[in-house]
Each structure stands twice: as C-alpha cells, then as structure tokens.
Amino acid sequence: MRGTAAMALNNSRWIMTLCLSFAIVLLAQESPWPVVRVKNDCDRYFCRRIICEPIDECSGGEIVAHGSLCGCCDVCVKRLGEGEACEGYKAPPGGIPKAECKLGLECKLDLECKADTECKVCAIDESEIKCDIVVKWRKKLLEESHHEEVYAKDLWIPDCDEKGLFRAKQCKQKKCFCVNKDGKRIFGQEERHLAANMTCACSRAMSIMQQQKKDSWMTKPQEHCTPSGDYDDLQCVDDLCYCADPATGGVIGKVTAMSFIELLPCYDEEKHTKRYLKQCEIQLMRTRSLIHQFRLKGIEIIGLDSVQCDLDGTFAPKQCQTDVCACTDEKGVSIGSYRIEKTNTDQERQMTCRCARDRNSLHSLYTRMSCEATGNFVPHQCFDGQCYCVDEDGDVFVDYIPINQKVNASGYCQQLLTKLNQASRFFTRDEVTTYEVTTYDYYDN
C-alpha cells in the first residue's frame, strides 16, 4: 500500500513538472518576448539519423568540417565584421556557431545594454587598447593640429594607472564618470565640482560580478552602488544587511537580518526602504529568479528581462520593449519623446540616453544641449552663433567649426570623433615605446 502511494506521489510530481513546462512553452508562443529552449545531449547514434544538406555556396565565409549540431555535418561559417550583431549565433552542442567574428574581433556585450543578450556585437578587443596608448594618440593629434587648432586645447586626456590601464574614475570638463580597466563607460557619474571623493570602486567591482555571474545576477538582493559609483552606506546581500564603508564596501559594525534593517545606524527612512530592494529590482528579480531556476533544470528562457536596472537599483536610462526603446528617468518614467523603433538595430545599439538623462537631472549643466531622438548628444552644438563639436558625453573636443563645414556640421564632428577614438588602429603598442610627443602646457590634463 505504501509503495502504491509513493508511486502515485512520484507520478503526480512528474505530471506537475510536465504541466509547468508546457505552460512555459505556451507562454513563449503567446508572448513576443520569451523563447524556450531545452538542451539536447548528443549520443553516438545521433548522426546516423541526420541527413546533411550539400553546401553549394559559401561566399563571405568558410566551410568548416563537422561544424553542425553534434558535429554531424559540414557547415558554412559566416565571418562577421565590426559592429555586426553576433548574439544570435550560439554554438549548438558539439558544434560551432554558423557565424563568427572576423580575426581580431570578438563578440562582446555592449555594457549600455546591461544584461540584454540581444546587444552583443563584433568589436575590437578593447583589452588591447591601453590607456597609455590613448594618451599618446590624443597628444599626437594635438601636436599635429597645433597650428590649425582642429582639436580643443583642453581635449580630454585619460588618467592611467602604473600598468597603463584606465583608472576607474575619469574626469572631463564638466563631469566625472566611471570606466572599466579598458576605458569602457560603466555605471556612475557626478558633476566634476562634486566628485572630489568619488572612487568608482563599487561600480568597478559590481560590473565585473555582473559579467562573471550572468546566470545568478539579480536573482536575490545584492550590493548597491551610489549614483557616483561608490558603495552605498547600507548594504544587503541575500537576507543579511550591514553598514558599509563607502570607499571599500567593507562591513562596519554588526550584521543583521533584513527584517531588522531599521535597527542599523546607517538606515535612513528618507533614503532607504524597509525591503531594501527598489522598484526596478523587484520587477527584475521576479523574472531573473524564474530564468535561473529553469536554467538549473536545463531549460533556457530568453527574453523575459523586460526591464534594465542600474547598479544603484534604479531604472537604467535605456528601456526596451517588444518594438520600441525609450529613455527614462531613475523611476522608469519616459523622458520627453526620446524613443526609437527597434527596427533600426544600429540606432538601438548606439542609443545611450546620456543627453536626455543629463538634461533631466536636477543639478545638470546641460539644459541647453541638443539631443537626438535616441537621447544621445547631437555631435554639433551651437550657441550664440558659435558652433562646436561634442563627444558621446557632451564634452567639447572641437571648440570651433569652420564656416565651410557648417552645412554638414554633424558629419564633420563625427569624422573627427571617429579619428579621435581610433587609437588602436593608428598607434600600436610598439609605437608607444618609441614615439616621443612634444607637449605644450595647455595640453596637460
């Protein structure tokens, strides 16, 4: 009798699991977002059941032997160029993807898209673009344009550490911001006159963790950064909360359960909430936890991450739905009419919303700056009849646009900005050690 009852219980559990999996499949069919994939293992008889199609043409790529699912068939592998989307070409079990980035490029996640898996593109390995190379390149351009005065005299020169890598905190004319060791913008910025104690330590650490723990990221409470990229003074990891050192994130005093968070001396009822999590995190954790649990069972659910959160727990500047991407404030409310259709993949990939956010901030110095529909800074800005060029952060890098270039001012600025950002292509590591640049007092940062 007990054996029969146990068998019935096991059968009921199996049926419940089957029904739940079927419900997820239905969800994927009804929604334009979720896609469910069940992992398959290759057995030794698998290829005997496969009929390989002949490859008659493979222009722009190369034929790789045994490159298909489980290595059964040859496959034509397309070679993707810089800027081309590469996320949709994941390798099947035992095989290789049908498209790969060309030699010298790698498939990288654009950090502006956070955990959005649709934002990977082929890009130059930025780990090879060292800070000292960028410094030499920019000073070289300044020297070459000294007489023509093409680039601004106070052009931003990066701050490098002793290893030639980018320091976490970088400051331009009006603002300071956080970058990773390769100079890529990450979360965290502040107006320059308020950034004396800014370290970006939290932003650096959490950005690395976000990349290393993609599966478990935001499935439970984790550390918060301040808007400037430092550690918040109140931290919770899982169900444990404590006061933290803003510079290091180290524990100060006692550790308590989240239910007693109000007892911590660093708890501020005007700044913090009893549940610690902010609204964006609450929404994201629901879907991330579901995705993580099913991934542990071998079921992949893609597309449920409908919101993007910053490292301080608030809504990220760029939010994308099924057919549109829009710029929002920290509460997730749309800013003006800064939005684009998702049909334009290049615009979507380059969309940062930095201009829209800066114009919307309380202590912003950018209220008179012009923004594109993407919320990015318009490359050329004009005030009182004088026009100049700004970069992706709104920082001036050309303080005068010649009259004969004003008809196509944006194109003129974009061309100069592209050259400014191409240090790795025109200035190699060997040249850094041999090239001596003549500097002028006003070049130094």
TrEMBL record:
InterPro entries: Dev_reg/Prot_inhib, Ser_Fungal_Prot_Inhib_sf, Thyroglobulin_1, Thyroglobulin_1_sf. GO terms for cellular component: basement membrane; extracellular space. The lineage of its organism: Eukaryota, Metazoa, Ecdysozoa, Arthropoda, Chelicerata. GO terms for biological process: cell-matrix adhesion. Residues 119-200, 277-353 form the Thyroglobulin type-1 domain. Keywords: Disulfide bond, Repeat, Secreted, Signal. It is found in: Secreted. Its main location: secreted. CDD domains: TY. This is U3-Liphistoxin-Lsp1a_1. Residues 1-28 form the signal peptide. SUPFAM superfamilies: Thyroglobulin type-1 domain.
